[in-house]
Amino acid sequence: MLAVVPPPVTVRVPSKINLHLSVGDLRKDGFHELITVFHALSLTDEVTVAAAEDPGIEVYGEGEGSVPTGANNLAWRAVQALAGYVGKDGGEPKVRVVLRKGIPVAGGMAGGSADAAATLVGLASLWKLDIGRDDLAEIAAKLGSDVPFALYGGTALGTGRGERLVPVLSRHTFHWVLAFDQRGLSTPRVFGELDRLRADGDPPRVGSHAPVVEALASGDPRQLALLLGNDLQAAAVSLRPGLRRTLRAGVNAGALAGTISGSGPTCAFLCADAQSALEVAAELAGAGVCRTVRVAHGPVPGARLVGGDDLP
Ligand code: C5P
């Protein structure tokens, strides 16, 4: 008798930027206490999971050559974590995961975390699990600080190491231009550089997140532009001084403001509207300050099945 093989499942998952990122003290577990406002963008990855006799990962698209395809890929760790959670232990789970990447690798936009979140959502459907997004978020938090946000998307306040989330009301679609750098930056290295800068002096810190939350509720991009702030920016610029030029070039091209996304090196530029974003993108692409430029809008939802039912 032929075994019934379930059809492959594809999940689309957003990238994120941090509209506000306040980095607190280094904790004993090696993480820093954060207060951050995450914002999910329409720059996405697509992840397909399928039952297969030859388990493994394939990667196509943005940065495909530099993404690990072995057990150290966060998406594969997501496969193992979900298999463990539902008692499918014992040997490698018989699934193939195909990552189609639009999110830059090691770019500060949580692309690896997005793929892990999408894998959890995809497998929950492929394996027909009776499991909701909140249960997946518990597994997600163990995989990485940014994985839970990729499940929910939208705009959210993150605390702890970034994994504790509360939704933030955002009344408006904001338009962004993203500038990808030639090479990625290692997140632990950027946090380490901030610790070093703070040990040497006292670099200015971003203030409270409250005004950012108010600006999001008002929906006025000009108000929000004045409030973008990221404690990791000084560290990313210290490691990659050319980013200062990129940030300036975006504002010279007509953006309302620019910020480093997460630990960088991607720069995110807030624009007045969709038309302005296209104009800023065109000018920035010609300025020779980055590898490539994308436009995106936010907020958008978290990891979602493409053309199918969704999780409870
Ligand atoms: O959680 P995730 O694996 O994405 O974190 C990658 C690295 O970034 C950590 O190992 C740590 O060095 C740094 N990090 C941190 N504080 C956080 C989040 C990440 O120091 N809140």
TrEMBL record:
<dbReference type="InterPro" id="IPR036554">
    <property type="entry name" value="GHMP_kinase_C_sf"/>
</dbReference>
<comment type="function">
    <text>Catalyzes the phosphorylation of the position 2 hydroxy group of 4-diphosphocytidyl-2C-methyl-D-erythritol.</text>
</comment>
<dbReference type="InterPro" id="IPR020568">
    <property type="entry name" value="Ribosomal_Su5_D2-typ_SF"/>
</dbReference>
<feature type="active site">
    <location>
        <position position="146"/>
    </location>
</feature>
<comment type="similarity">
    <text>Belongs to the GHMP kinase family. IspE subfamily.</text>
</comment>
<keyword id="KW-0808">Transferase</keyword>
<keyword id="KW-0414">Isoprene biosynthesis</keyword>
<keyword id="KW-0547">Nucleotide-binding</keyword>
<keyword id="KW-0067">ATP-binding</keyword>
<keyword id="KW-0418">Kinase</keyword>
<dbReference type="InterPro" id="IPR014721">
    <property type="entry name" value="Ribsml_uS5_D2-typ_fold_subgr"/>
</dbReference>
<dbReference type="InterPro" id="IPR006204">
    <property type="entry name" value="GHMP_kinase_N_dom"/>
</dbReference>
<dbReference type="InterPro" id="IPR004424">
    <property type="entry name" value="IspE"/>
</dbReference>
<dbReference type="GO" id="GO:0016301">
    <property type="term" value="F:kinase activity"/>
</dbReference>
<feature type="domain" description="GHMP kinase C-terminal">
    <location>
        <begin position="213"/>
        <end position="286"/>
    </location>
</feature>
<comment type="pathway">
    <text>Isoprenoid biosynthesis; isopentenyl diphosphate biosynthesis via DXP pathway; isopentenyl diphosphate from 1-deoxy-D-xylulose 5-phosphate: step 3/6.</text>
</comment>
<dbReference type="Pfam" id="PF08544">
    <property type="entry name" value="GHMP_kinases_C"/>
</dbReference>
<feature type="active site">
    <location>
        <position position="16"/>
    </location>
</feature>
<protein>
    <recommendedName>
        <fullName>4-diphosphocytidyl-2-C-methyl-D-erythritol kinase</fullName>
        <ecNumber>2.7.1.148</ecNumber>
    </recommendedName>
</protein>
<dbReference type="Pfam" id="PF00288">
    <property type="entry name" value="GHMP_kinases_N"/>
</dbReference>
<feature type="binding site">
    <location>
        <begin position="104"/>
        <end position="114"/>
    </location>
    <ligand>
        <name>ATP</name>
    </ligand>
</feature>
<dbReference type="InterPro" id="IPR013750">
    <property type="entry name" value="GHMP_kinase_C_dom"/>
</dbReference>
<feature type="domain" description="GHMP kinase N-terminal">
    <location>
        <begin position="73"/>
        <end position="154"/>
    </location>
</feature>
